[in-house]
Write a sequence for this structure.
């Protein structure tokens, strides 16, 4: 969905999460959200995220939270549903199951929000359903967590692609969930864009916007008297050979006084500023103020 995704085969693939206090929400609010593309939706439950604490007793009194897809079966009135379970004990839990007629081979954004005693499920940025149930539910601490199956047993494996998985120690607002969905393939975890080099005029090593004898002098001082280096080496590469040397001074002087060929594009004013479009070199242009 956004760059690479987690591919799960539905047989034995899953991601085990190291126990961390940052996932121990206990009585606090939290949000689970992700993008999912199922390979198939028939036959078995598929657990997306599951955390089970090591407090209290075994099932059904294990403190836990869980987000999964359940196909039609007796326990959910024979409907396909998204299930969000927040459990303290079996008598004190919020087990929300909302009809969701998903199809395989399609990307969906899912979000599950626990806010106090209210659980809510969102599909593609819109509220799918909510339920208020239980009292001061405590999902516990410690234990085990997994993405793509049940945390403590080899069952309910996910078959498909999962991406952009987010776990938050607060209840995201509906507007935040909608914004994540609307971001789509841009993602919320975008890598930083590489720095963009400025546009420049070739043949202007001093960066004043013009090409004249002062540029040739500036370049000679840089090359032979340890003068200040041009901030835009591409602009100083007057003959565009990928190097800054005496040949650039001669090329510029020949152009200025003997009607020689002008520096290649993006050439001197009145030509427009531009980027270096010739085969890449190592010169670069960190700063240019002449455009």
């Amino acid at each position: 969905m956004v760059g690479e995704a987690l591919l799960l085969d539905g047989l034995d693939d899953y991601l085990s999460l190291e126990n961390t206090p940052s996932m121990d929400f206990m009585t606090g609010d939290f949000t689970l959200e992700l993008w999912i593309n199922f390979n198939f939706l028939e036959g078995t439950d598929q657990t997306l995220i599951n955390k089970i604490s090591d407090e209290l007793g075994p099932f059904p009194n294990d403190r836990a939270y869980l987000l999964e897809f359940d196909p039609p079966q007796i326990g959910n009135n024979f409907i396909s549903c998204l299930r969000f379970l927040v459990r303290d004990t079996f008598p004190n839990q919020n087990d929300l199951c909302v009809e969701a007629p998903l199809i395989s081979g399609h990307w969906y954004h899912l979000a599950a929000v626990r806010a106090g005693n209210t659980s809510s499920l969102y599909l593609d940025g819109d509220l799918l359903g909510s339920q208020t149930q239980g009292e001061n539910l405590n999902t516990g601490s410690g234990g085990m967590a997994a993405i793509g199956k049940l945390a403590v047993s080899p069952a309910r494996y996910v078959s498909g692609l999962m991406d952009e998985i987010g776990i938050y120690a607060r209840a995201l607002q509906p507007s935040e969930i909608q914004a994540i969905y609307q971001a789509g393939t841009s993602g919320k975890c975008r890598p930083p864009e590489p720095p963009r080099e400025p546009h420049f005029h070739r043949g202007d090593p001093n960066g004043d916007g013009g090409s004249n004898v002062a540029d040739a002098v500036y370049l000679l001082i840089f090359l032979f008297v340890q003068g200040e280096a041009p901030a835009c080496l591409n602009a100083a590469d007057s003959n565009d050979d990928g190097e800054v040397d005496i040949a650039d001074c001669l090329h510029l002087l020949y152009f200025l006084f003997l009607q020689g060929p002008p520096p290649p594009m993006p050439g001197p004013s009145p030509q427009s500023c531009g980027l270096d479009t010739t085969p890449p070199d190592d010169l670069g242009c960190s700063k240019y103020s002449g455009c």
